[in-house]
Design goal:
CATH class of the largest domain: Alpha Beta
Structural class: alpha/beta
Number of strands: 16
Strand order of the largest sheet: 6-7-8-9-10-11-12-13
CATH superfamily of the largest domain: Metal-dependent hydrolases
Helix content: 25-40%
């Protein structure tokens, strides 16, 4: 007997509907399942689109929902770091857990089945955020998988004591070592920051995920370090295990130079995660006219073969005062800001949120809509894949390890009764 059968699901735009059978947390079959097949639970998708579970490849759960405590009135990156630094001093396990849990549940309801979380690790926050994420990784694994990144937001040399905290984070079980290459005092320190991150990644045999090149342009060389990361990736033999978040200044580099950098990232096997909600909000703040909208050049990255994803990054805090942990909402924003409006572009964006994000997070071996893959699925309230962004569909069912963990049923009604005319 199957644990769950999803009947009449649309998994490809121009193919027949299929049934998806699940046993023991894995997909057992995709195709035509006999009508009399026994199942503990059956859902008739009635032609609705089914995707593998969405993946938030870059999310700061520890800093979520801080905007209610203190907003970033300047709207700049420097202002966001300053405001958040002040708030972090008062972090407690209870406060971090309450905010993170709330957003985590929003993400699950919106179809997310894996999150790569980036808690700050520094002398201001200590290991409070990291320890809470490690707790949530275990207590919420029935709802969502968490990868925990030890993230040095304040820099390493610039915040003495951070290196020891990073090591302790990895000893405690962090899955990934993070970096914030631009947040050091000078270019040489930024390069040493990269070297330190890669040395820790090699020592603890974990992937590396760095915030990098987060500026309107590359006028300051601290925001033109993507090539240095590519070089370090090759030197350490870490192709396919290194990710860069933001990389907005890449869009401001001259076309030939930009093409050269993108080619280096592709050659070295470095992935990029676009974070449009944050990047659009913080970018271009000093421009008096023709304000730059700094998002990494997604189409160029994809065309060059760079593994590229996108994510929410921050939810309602000094970096991004918006958001509901809805990855498809971020995908629609990406489509609108990166000139990606065709049906083929929608397919690309769906892949970025699913199969490509699985590769970025190193979870692709048992991911997807195929027999043997883990049964992490989301049923969308739309019948055309090309409408999966523009319809802003409900996530009718979210399945984690073969079990329905979220449902959304929404009813809208237009009251079209005509008003009687006075005689």
């Amino acid at each position: 007997m199957f644990d769950l059968v999803l009947r009449r699901a649309k998994i490809a735009e121009r193919e027949d509907l299929v049934d998806i059978a699940v046993t023991g947390g894995l997909i057992a079959a995709v195709g035509a399942i006999p009508a009399d097949a026994a199942a503990a639970e059956t859902v008739d998708c009635d032609g609705l689109v089914v995707l593998p579970g969405l993946i938030e490849a870059h999310l700061h759960l520890d800093k979520a929902l801080l905007d209610r405590d203190r907003p970033n009135l300047s709207g700049t990156l420097a202002g966001a770091i300053e405001v958040t630094g002040a708030l972090k001093r008062d972090f407690t396990p209870r406060s971090v857990r309450a905010r993170a849990e709330r957003v985590l549940r929003w993400a699950v309801a919106n179809g997310t089945t894996l999150i790569r979380a980036h808690p700050d690790v520094d002398p201001l926050a200590g290991l409070t955020g990291l320890d809470v994420m490690l707790e949530l990784r275990e207590s919420h694994r029935h709802l969502v998988d968490l990868q925990v990144v030890a993230f040095p937001q304040e820099g390493i040399e610039r915040a003495p004591g951070t290196y020891a905290l990073l090591r302790e984070s990895l000893l405690r079980g962090a899955d990934v070592v993070g970096g914030c290459a631009y947040n050091e005092g000078d270019l040489d320190a930024c390069r040493r920051h990269i070297d330190t991150v890669f040395a820790l990644a090699a020592e603890f045999r974990v992937p590396a995920d760095l915030h990098a090149d987060f500026a309107d342009d590359a006028g300051d060389a601290r925001f033109a370090l993507a090539e240095a990361v590519a070089d370090a990736t090759e030197q350490h033999g870490m192709a396919g295990r290194v990710t860069l978040g933001h990389v907005t200044s890449l869009a401001g580099r001259p076309p030939a130079e930009r093409a050269r950098v993108i080619a280096r990232l592709a050659e070295a096997g470095v992935a990029v995660v676009a974070l449009p909600a944050t990047d659009l909000h913080l970018g271009g703040r000093a421009d008096p006219q023709a304000v730059r909208r700094g998002v990494t050049p997604v189409r160029e990255l994809l065309d060059a073969g760079v593994l590229t994803g996108f994510s929410s990054n921050n939810i309602r805090n000094a970096f991004t005062p918006f958001g509901n942990a809805d990855l498809l909402d971020i995908g629609l924003l990406l489509a609108q800001t990166c000139h990606m409006g065709s049906p083929a572009d929608t397919e690309r964006i769906l892949r970025m949120a699913t199969t490509d994000a699985a590769r970025i997070t190193g979870t692709d071996a048992d991911y997807g809509l195929r027999p043997g893959a883990r049964a992490d699925l989301v049923v969308l309230g739309t019948r055309r894949r090309e409408d999966a962004l523009t319809d802003r569909p409900d996530r009718r069912y979210v399945v984690k390890r073969g079990r329905i963990v979220a449902r959304t049923t929404r009813t809208s009604e237009v009251l079209d009764a005509r008003v009687p005319q006075a005689v």
